[in-house]
Amino acid sequence: MKEFDLSKLRHGTDLIKRGFSKMQKGGVIMDVTTVEQAKIAEKSGAVAVMALERVPADIRAYGGVARMADPTIIKEIINTVSIPVMAKARIGHFVEAQALEALGVDMIDESEVLTPADPFFHIDKRVFTIPFVCGCRNLGEAIRRIWEGAAMIRTKGEAGTGNIIEAIRHQRMVTRMTQALKTMQMAQIRKLADEYCQSYVTAFKTLTNQNVDEKTALFGPTTYSQLKKEINEILIEIEKLQRLPVVNFAAGGVATPADAAIMMQLGSDGVFVGSGIFKSKNPEKRAKAIVEAVAHFDEPEMIAEVSKNLGDAMLGIDISSIPKDQLLQERGW
Amino acid sequence: MVSLQGAVSEHLSSMNRVFQKSEMKGQAVLVRQLRDIDACDALIIPGGESTTISRILINSGMYKVIRERIMHDDIALMGTCAGCVLLGKELIDSTTDIKLLEALDIQVERNAFGRQKQSFEKQIDIKGFSTPYNAVFIRAPVITRIWGSCEVLASVGTKIVMARQKNYLAMSFHPELTSDLRIHQYFLEMI
Fold first, then answer.
1. Which of A23, A88, A240, A299 could form a disulfide with A109 if both were Cys (CB 3.0 to 4.6 A apart)?
2. Is any Cβ of chain A less than 8 angstroms from the Cβ of B65?
3. Which residue(s) pair with B78 in the sheet?
4. Active site residues of A
5. What domains, with CATH codes, occur in chain B?
6. What distances in angstroms separate CA B148 from CA B84, B101, B153, one per listed residue?
7. Dist CA B154 CA B171 (whole Å)
8. B93, exposed or middle or buried, with CB in 10 Å at 0-12, 13-18, 19+?
């Protein structure tokens, strides 16, 4: 039999991108900054690691512009673990994304934890072979990211705080709006689709000082009327499925096994844990406990058991003590 | 169906669609706890991360129960992707993070085609199927060697991607991601 040519196969289709995300379901994706942390994460049962230079809590403390991590660190982690390796690119920074794809990263997080690079547009994720995950605070943000090609959505929460309240807020915003679609007439859904297009309209108006009409190209070659039609189609799909058409993880504030389990009970397919593990007293024990909590999210005895003697969680921050201009969730639109 | 981690709901809905179309009585259910296994004649171990699924199988006590039923020839098993890795007897890059279920006489190599960028879809020929099957490979493993009574059902080039032995079925791709139900149908007939 002849050896086949891998380069001639179909790569990067929606099925493959969304399929990759589905393999992560019921799992925990952990932020790691060193090879040692990546090994601990893998050993503890993480389904993937997010390779970073600093965890969000340190990014918050450090200040300045947060950018894509040093490729040396990412490459070292790729060479160390067998589970998928993800990395973050700045919002709109498609060249950071291209570099990450070239490095062999398995998924890119276009993340508000880093300082946004483009004030107008998120990355056109459809032109990449590897899949993207993006943050959202509500159904509108989720749908725009899915339309732009995201294969996975996560709640933004408020990263680096160890405070779950924002993640719960965002998950409830998405879930409640998804349910509300059921009670809406087609005309109302069309109107909502138009509303969800308005951030692209605003970008165009700011850039050109002109008004838009149906034929105005708003994102790449996509016209206003086409955009409305396609966003409307995604809304109708969500109304039928009664969930997002892609995998939906929780992120931004998960610090304990119970935090992880509440997000699962609220409808998340899995969780990202950023600072919560390696900013705690006993990272390995906490990592394993959170993995168990996600696998057994609806078994209270299990949550109680794995929550015992974990040592101090990360200290955490009250959201109201953060100046509004330092809220990471406000980044992206 | 072992519902621990990975593409579980997709397998569940594929399998239940097969049940709806078939004369056979039965249903696919989620297995989330040890006690759920007792009621099952067959298990599907889904795609996901083999290290994660292995860890949860051991911690929940399911590993031991499934092993015992394999030794008594008392269970049918299907493993896809990560599930294929776990059903094998040998792993090329053996690691202490994975404890194999040792059902089929196969040796498996994880991530054999490369990283996510190299993941692909391809029409493949499967022994016993009259038309090609669109298989989705995601960071897929391959079967590097088979022995004993194990039989190859499909290959991609020189790489084995599907094998059967007794009522155990292992494949490195994801039949749960497409609407073609022939593989779930095939597995139902094996039980």
1. A88
2. no
3. B44, B169
4. 88
5. 8-190 (3.40.50.880)
6. 17, 17, 15
7. 9
8. exposed
Q: What string of pLDDT tens digits covers the 333 residues of chain A?
A: 445 666 677 899 999 999 999 999 999 999 999 999 999 999 999 999 999 988 888 988 888 899 999 999 999 999 999 999 999 999 999 999 999 999 999 999 999 999 999 999 999 999 999 999 999 999 999 999 999 999 999 999 999 999 999 999 999 999 999 999 999 999 999 999 999 999 999 999 999 999 999 999 999 999 999 999 999 999 999 999 999 999 999 999 999 999 999 999 999 999 999 888 998 889 999 999 999 999 999 999 999 999 999 988 888 888 889 988 889 998 988
Alpha helices in chain A (DSSP H): 14-22, 35-43, 56-62, 71-80, 94-103, 139-147, 165-181, 186-196, 198-208, 224-241, 257-265, 275-278, 283-295, 300-306
Could you tell me the pTM of the whole model?
Answer: 0.94
Task: Kindly determine whether residue B139 and residue A104, on different chains, have CB atoms separated by under 8 Å.
Answer: no
Are B136 and A130 an interchain contact pair (Cβ–Cβ within 8 Å)?
no
Q: Nearest-CA neighbor of B45 among B15, B90, B19?
A: B15
CA atoms within 13 A on the CB side of B36: 15
Chain A residues touching chain B at CB-CB below 8 Å: 1-4, 6, 9-13, 15-16, 19-20, 22-27, 42-48, 78, 82-84, 101, 104-107, 129-131, 291-292, 295-296, 299
Q: Is the dihedral of CA A322, A320, A276, A102 positive or negative?
A: negative
Q: How many residues does chain A have?
A: 333
Q: Is A132 helix (H, G, I), strand (E, B) or coil?
A: strand
ipTM of predicted complex: 0.93
- The contacts of residue A49 (CB under 8 Å, 6+ apart) are A29, A30, A31, A32, A38, A41, A42, A77, A81, A83, A84, A85, A86
